[in-house]
UniProtKB/TrEMBL annotation:
It comes from Endocarpon pusillum. The chain crosses the membrane at residues 29-51. Residues 303-326 are annotated as: Disordered. Belongs to the peptidase M28 family. M28B subfamily. Keywords: Membrane, Transmembrane, Transmembrane helix. It holds the Pfam family TFR_dimer. It comes from the Eukaryota. InterPro entries: PA_dom_sf, PA_domain, Peptidase_M28, Peptidase_M28B, TFR-like_dimer_dom, TFR-like_dimer_dom_sf. This is Glutamate carboxypeptidase.
Length: 780
């Protein structure tokens, strides 16, 4: 036996080799396969990620069995091709159906807050089309007319003694304040037709001398002050036109005037006048002498929406403020030019004549009736008595909201038209748009029935209360602002859809591309060469956004790119009786659009723009157009600066604005070039074994679309414009003394108009900050 002294010897026992496992080949194969699967999974998880920007979707979405796409056919259409959808939208709208809708809407009065039956009918019609719809109401502050009077009075100079302290007047002319009932036009004879009045007019009864103030623009009043015309304590008589009616009243009130009367002068009617030999409506196309333009006297460039709830929705229990910062405190009335004639003729020979003023005072259309257009004041023997009695109440208005849900929940296209009117008719304003709107929705309904589902959500809105001051749309935007800010792509508005053959458009420059592309696909109703499209027969002028319709809250408060479209009258078109009883179904059927072709054309154009924005994988927007427009807007402000009282060696410099604008233009061009290439890559088929490339494209598209979607929001300034903070957009706003027409870079431009260099410097800094925010968004 070995012990601790014995050398260590290694003893190895060798045994016979064991037989091999009989399934070893199978086990080896399984090991290789399972290891290979593991490697493939690792490649699927890690390898595609190396090609992607950081944070573009969860990595699990790149697995072969993952499905991150909006729908299975993406980037194609869901249920039908883009071309098939386009065909449906072009072929479905028809004149017969549009005429039926118009006939319903114009059959009776539908003043704001008094048209619930029409709201219910609209909701039911949309639901019959298959569009889920609801009614959203707001409690708004507005007025309804109780009584009115306007009379030209002669002071009784034959009275003596103590009676001189309370002079008696004789009636020289009592204005009818009524529009003629026409046998040919049944809506003019309705027993419940709406009286002539101004929305948001103050109640009052004033007797005073009066002064002719031309169009009642800010500059007209400045001309009168320069001519030493006495205004305080007088009543103004103004022509409609050039600026928003409420701003005429605002300036008159600021100058101490006690009331205002407005009429439509035939000079606004171009060639189509009685003086030129045309018969008046209903026999001919000229203006009926008794027609009266109703309308709101709200200061729409100061605050749209409910004047008692600025910035918040008018719901039960909402805190309310004094409304008189945005509505008048003096009474006003609209009258016909027939009623205006005795008032104007009574001024003949008194005060300076309009011919003594600049070119903007020339061209009055009643000279053939013996009107000299003297300014006044009226002689001591004549005064006007103006009485306006209004009932102010808080009452519901009703929006109808329809929705077709898309596959992408946070990208929505909103289409809107208002339903309320000042009169029983409203065949042009707004119900030519309403009739076209129903055809747009019906066309999308036909597509849904054929199996189509939209890529992005479509929202349809029939607004109430637009005429008083964009009430329904403004309150809705204020209520749903968080959702709109996160998910809205664009707002597409049609108010007056068809009253003539001339297409007019106003839009954010982001939407120029979509408008032009759609116009190139819709056949024109007035072709001079067979096959011409709307684009071929249109001057392609697209105005900047002002106010006066329901796009205002979207564009100027929420920063949502918006447009407004409609066919308006040409110089040789029949006169459109705006806000008059003669804006009737009969007028439309005989003079306005007697074949109803333009109703259908605006419906097709509207639908195709919505389709383009809804269905293209990469949003059909363009930042380069916007950046180029910003450059031209800046040049316009420079011209204002040259005309201002601010000296060239002041503290203000355009250097930083020029630099920021140039940088933004370069970034926008680069971004649009990238998205164009992205669209091109989407059109190329991807082999099935490179599935992850399609996922990569999806997230590139989502990122690009988010930048497009949020671009307009970068130009919002939370503090708002000076003295009108509700308007948040630094690029667009209604002109403070125009209302309808738009101002660009309003904060800066108004600083130059006021000669305020300190404020100009402040606004220059604000604009540079917003331009840089827009550039950084594109470069992220």
């Amino acid at each position: 036996m070995p012990d601790e002294q014995t050398p260590l010897l290694a003893v190895v026992r060798v045994e016979q080799r064991r037989p091999r496992y009989q399934h070893s080949t199978v086990r080896r194969f399984c090991t290789i396969v399972l290891s290979g699967v593991l490697v493939v999974v690792l490649i699927c998880l890690l390898f595609p990620a190396a090609f992607l920007p950081v944070a573009d979707g969860p990595k699990s979405s790149y697995l072969p069995w993952a499905n991150p796409f909006p729908h299975q056919a993406w980037p194609g259409g869901d249920g039908m091709t883009y071309e098939e959808l386009q065909t449906i939208l072009l072929q479905t709208p028809n004149e017969v159906e549009a005429r039926k809708s118009s006939e319903y809407y114009t059959a009776g009065p539908h003043l704001a807050g008094k048209n619930l039956s029409q709201a219910l009918w609209t909701k039911e019609k949309w639901e019959d089309y298959g569009v889920k719809s609801s009614i959203v109401s707001y409690d708004v502050y507005l007025n309804y007319p109780l009584d009115h009077r306007l009379a030209l009075l002669e002071v009784d100079s034959g009275r003596t003694g103590v009676d001189l302290a309370t002079p008696r007047h004789k009636i020289r002319y009592e204005c009818s304040l009524e529009e003629d009932v026409l046998d040919q036009d049944q809506t003019t004879a309705l027993s419940d037709r709406i009286p002539t009045f101004h929305g948001y007019s103050a109640s009052g009864n004033v007797t005073a001398p009066y002064v002719y103030v031309n169009f009642g623009t800010y500059h007209d009043f400045e001309d009168l002050l320069a001519a030493n015309v006495s205004l305080a304590g007088s009543i103004a008589i103004a022509k409609y036109g050039h600026v928003f009616r409420g701003l005429k009243v605002k300036r008159a009130q600021e100058l101490g005037m006690v009331g205002m009367v407005m009429y439509t002068d035939p000079q606004e009617d171009g060639e189509m006048t009685v003086a030129n030999g045309y018969q008046a409506y209903p026999e001919g196309p000229a203006r009926n002498p008794s027609s009266v333009q109703r309308g709101t006297a709200q200061y729409i460039s100061v605050l749209p929406g409910d004047p008692t709830t600025p910035g918040i929705p008018s719901k039960p229990g909402s805190p309310r403020v004094d409304p008189h910062k945005s509505i008048p405190s003096i009474p006003s009335l609209p009258i016909s030019y027939r009623d205006a004639l005795p008032l104007l003729k009574a001024l003949n020979g008194y005060g300076p004549n309009a011919s003594h003023f600049n070119k903007y005072w020339q061209g009055g259309g009643l000279t053939h009736e013996g009107v000299y257009y003297n300014i006044g004041p009226s002689p001591d023997s004549l005064v006007l008595n103006l009485m306006s009695a209004q009932e102010y109440i808080t009452t519901p208005v009703w929006n109808v909201i329809g929705v077709i849900n898309g596959s992408i929940p946070d990208e929505a296209i909103i289409l809107g038209n208002h339903r309320d009117a000042w009169i029983a008719g409203g065949a042009g304003d707004p119900n030519s748009g309403s009739a076209a709107f129903n055809e747009v929705i019906r066309a999308f309904s036909v597509a849904m029935q054929a199996g189509w589902k939209p890529l992005r959500t479509l929202v349809f809105a029939s607004w109430d209360g637009e005429e008083y001051g964009l009430l329904g749309s403004t309150e809705w935007v204020e209520e749903y602002l968080p959702w709109l800010s996160a998910g809205s792509v664009a707002y597409l508005n049609v108010d007056v859809g068809s009253v003539g053959p001339k297409l007019e458009a106003a839009a954010s420059p982001l939407l120029t591309k979509a408008i032009l592309e759609a116009a190139g696909l819709v056949p024109s109703p007035n072709q001079t060469v067979q096959g011409q499209t709307v684009l071929d027969t249109w001057d392609k002028r697209i105005r900047t956004m002002g106010s006066g319709s329901d796009f205002t809250a979207f564009q100027d408060f929420a920063g949502i790119p918006s447009l407004d479209l409609g066919f308006k009258g040409a110089p040789n078109s029949p006169v459109y009786h705006y806000h008059s009883n003669y804006d009737s179904f009969h007028w439309m059927d005989k003079f306005g659009d007697n074949q109803w072709h333009y109703h259908i054309t605006i419906a097709k154009l509207w639908a195709l723009i919505a389709m383009d924005l809804c269905e293209t994988p990469v949003l059909s927007l363009n930042t380069t157009n916007y950046a180029l427009a910003l450059s031209s807007y800046l040049e316009g402000v420079k011209e204002k600066a040259k005309r201002s009282t601010i000296s060239e060696d002041s503290a203000f410099s355009f250097k930083f604005l020029d630099h920021a604008t140039s940088e933004l233009q370069a970034a926008a061009t680069k971004f649009d070039t990238y998205t164009a290439d992205l669209t091109r890559r989407l059109s190329k088929p991807v082999p099935w074994w490179q599935w992850w490339k399609t996922v990569k494209l999806l997230y590139e598209v989502r990122k690009a679309n988010t930048k497009y979607k949020l671009w307009e929001r970068q130009f919002l300034y939370p503090g708002g414009l000076d003295d009108r903070p509700w308007f948040k957009h630094v690029v667009f706003a209604p002109g403070r003394w125009t209302g309808y027409s738009g101002a660009t870079y309003p904060g800066l431009g108004e600083s130059f108009e006021d000669g305020n260099v300190t404020n100009a410097v402040r606004w220059g800094e604000i604009i540079v900050e917003r331009l840089e925010a827009a550039r950084k968004l594109l470069e992220e």
